[in-house]
C-alpha cells in the first residue's frame, strides 16, 4: 500500500471494543510463575504473542485456560523452569520468564529469542542486574542458564532505561530476600500495571 486517502467531513459514531494492552498482558502472565495457585486475567488481547506466552507457561507445567478475553493460569504444578527456542524464537518478550523462574525455582534455562545469533545484547542489562542479586549466569549455545539458591535484594542502576528489564527485576525482587531498589527504572503504564498485579499477589512495592 503506497498511500491512504481519507475523505472526512462525516460525523463519526458507534461502539468500539477496546482490548487490553499486550505489553501489560505478557508480563502479568509471566508473573503468574511466581506463586503457586490460580491467577485470573481479564481483557487479554487475542494476539500471537499472548498465545506464545500461554504455550510457554504450559511448557513449565502450568495449566492455561482461555476464555473470551480471559485467561486462567494454574501454576500449582509448574516445575519445569525452561523456555525452549522453538517456543520463544518469535517472541522477544520471552525473556520476561527469566526473573520469575529464577526467583521461584532457583534456576532457569531460557533461550535467547535469536538463538545463537545473539547480535546486539539488550538482555545484558537484565543479566547484570540478576547477577547483582546473587544469580550465577552462563550463556551456552544460545541459552541463558541462571542459578541461585535464593536471590537477595540489591540496588540496581540500569545504564539505560529498559521496560522489560525493569519488569524482570520487579518480578525477581518479589521473592528475593531483602529490599531491591531500581534506579533509572522505566515508567511506562505497563510497569504500573505489573506493580499493581504483584501487590495483589502479596508483594510490597513503592
Explain what you see.
It is globular and about 65 Å long. The model has no long low-confidence stretch (mean pLDDT 93). The chain is an alpha/beta fold and 206 residues long. The N and C termini lie far apart (47 Å). The strands form 3 sheets. A 4-stranded mixed β-sheet has the order 4-5-7-6. The chain has a 3-stranded antiparallel β-sheet with strand order 1-3-2, with helices on one face. Strands 8-9 form a two-stranded parallel ribbon. β8, α6 and β9 form a beta-alpha-beta unit.
Topology:
Blueprint: H1 22-31, E1 38-42, H2 48-60, E2 63-66, E3 70-74, E4 82-83, H3 85-88, H4 98-105, E5 107-111, H5 124-132, E6 136-140, E7 143-147, E8 155-157, H6 163-175, E9 181-183, H7 189-200
Can you tag this structure with a few keywords?
three-stranded antiparallel sheet, 7 helices, alpha/beta, four-stranded mixed sheet, 33% helix, 206 residues
Amino acid at each position: 500500500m503506497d498511500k491512504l486517502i481519507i475523505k472526512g467531513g462525516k460525523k463519526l459514531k458507534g461502539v468500539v471494543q477496546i482490548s487490553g494492552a499486550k505489553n501489560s498482558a505478557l508480563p502479568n502472565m509471566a508473573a503468574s510463575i511466581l506463586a503457586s495457585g490460580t491467577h485470573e486475567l481479564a481483557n487479554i488481547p487475542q494476539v500471537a504473542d499472548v498465545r506464545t506466552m500461554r504455550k510457554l507457561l504450559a511448557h513449565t507445567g502450568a495449566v492455561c485456560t482461555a476464555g473470551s478475553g480471559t485467561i486462567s493460569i494454574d501454576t500449582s504444578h509448574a516445575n519445569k523452569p525452561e523456555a525452549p527456542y522453538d517456543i520463544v524464537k518469535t517472541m522477544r518478550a520471552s525473556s520476561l520468564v527469566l526473573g520469575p523462574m529464577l526467583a521461584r525455582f532457583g534456576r532457569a534455562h531460557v533461550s535467547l529469542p535469536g538463538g545463537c545469533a545473539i547480535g546486539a545484547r539488550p538482555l545484558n542489562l537484565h543479566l547484570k542486574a540478576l547477577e547483582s542479586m546473587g544469580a550465577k549466569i552462563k550463556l551456552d549455545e544460545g541459552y541463558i542458564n541462571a542459578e541461585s539458591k535464593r536471590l537477595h535484594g540489591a540496588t540496581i542502576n540500569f545504564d539505560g532505561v529498559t521496560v522489560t528489564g525493569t519488569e524482570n527485576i520487579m518480578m525477581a525482587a518479589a521473592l528475593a530476600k531483602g529490599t531491591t531498589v531500581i534506579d533509572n527504572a522505566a515508567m511506562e503504564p505497563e510497569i504500573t500495571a505489573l506493580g499493581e498485579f504483584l501487590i495483589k499477589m502479596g508483594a510490597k512495592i513503592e
